[in-house]
Design brief:
The chain has a domain of 145 residues. It is an alpha+beta fold. A 5-stranded antiparallel sheet has the order 3-2-1-6-7. 15% of the residues lie in helices and 33% in strands. The protein contains 4 helices and 7 strands, in the order αβββαββββαα.
């Protein structure tokens, strides 16, 4: 005998809506949360939606001592492609899956509305990771960023290119990242994804776009 579990029924519908394939996607961030790992490393938790499917992504940007790491470069690429000079965290709410209640819940959080609701192009790869139960899981990671309308990368935008040339080569390099031989120490942030190319060193001195108006229609929750 089985008794109806409505929460489990709803969860079954959600599994088919996850982005699980390596590839090129154009969509929007529907929520971006400011996060800090147990080690003090800072970053962002992003929910990305494209064509009715979604993926939960993370970028760790700075260690506790302020040293920047690879996720910082990815964030700078995202800001360049969205033509944003600055982003500031604001009070808001995010939705998350609560394993204890087996349902989606809402909590207060620091969020980045300026990153949300605007078209953005992402190249996504799959990456294996060691789960706490000893098995290997798979997650989606950002392997590249491009401007949705033009398909220009951050480097090409900063170099004032008008014809996209880098993206096809970046797509061709997409692959699955297997679990590394050595297991990361407990509490260490997941391996970070980088952005191909350069062009970020002098971006504060010569940014080829104007300050956009604050986006007022950003979605903080799904």
């Amino acid at each position: 005998m089985y008794a109806l579990d409505t929460k489990a029924a709803q969860k079954a519908d959600q599994t088919g809506n996850r982005i699980t394939e390596i590839g090129k996607y154009v969509g929007t961030f529907t929520q971006v949360e400011d996060i800090t790992a147990a080690t003090g490393t800072k970053g962002l938790a992003l929910r990305f939606e494209a064509n009715g499917q979604s993926a939960n992504l993370s970028l760790y940007t700075k260690k506790a001592d302020g040293e920047t790491i690879m996720g910082f470069q990815v964030l700078m690429a995202i800001m360049t492609c969205l033509q944003l000079r600055n982003i500031e965290p604001k009070d808001g709410t995010v939705k998350y899956w609560d394993r204890d209640t087996n349902s989606e819940e809402t909590k207060a959080a620091k969020v980045y509305p300026d990153l949300c609701g605007k078209p953005i192009g992402l190249l996504l790869e799959t990456e294996g990771y060691n789960k706490t139960d000893g098995t290997v899981g798979t997650k989606m990671v950002i392997a590249g960023v491009f401007q949705a309308k033009t398909e220009l990368t951050a480097t090409e935008i900063l170099e004032r290119k008008t014809v996209p040339e880098m993206l096809p080569k970046m797509v061709a390099r997409l692959h699955h990242r297997p679990v590394k031989a050595s297991k990361p120490a407990s509490g260490r942030p997941a391996a970070q994804s980088g952005h191909s190319g350069s062009g970020f060193e002098d971006m504060d001195d010569d940014i080829p776009f104007r300050d956009p108006l604050s986006y007022r229609g950003a979605h903080l929750v799904l």
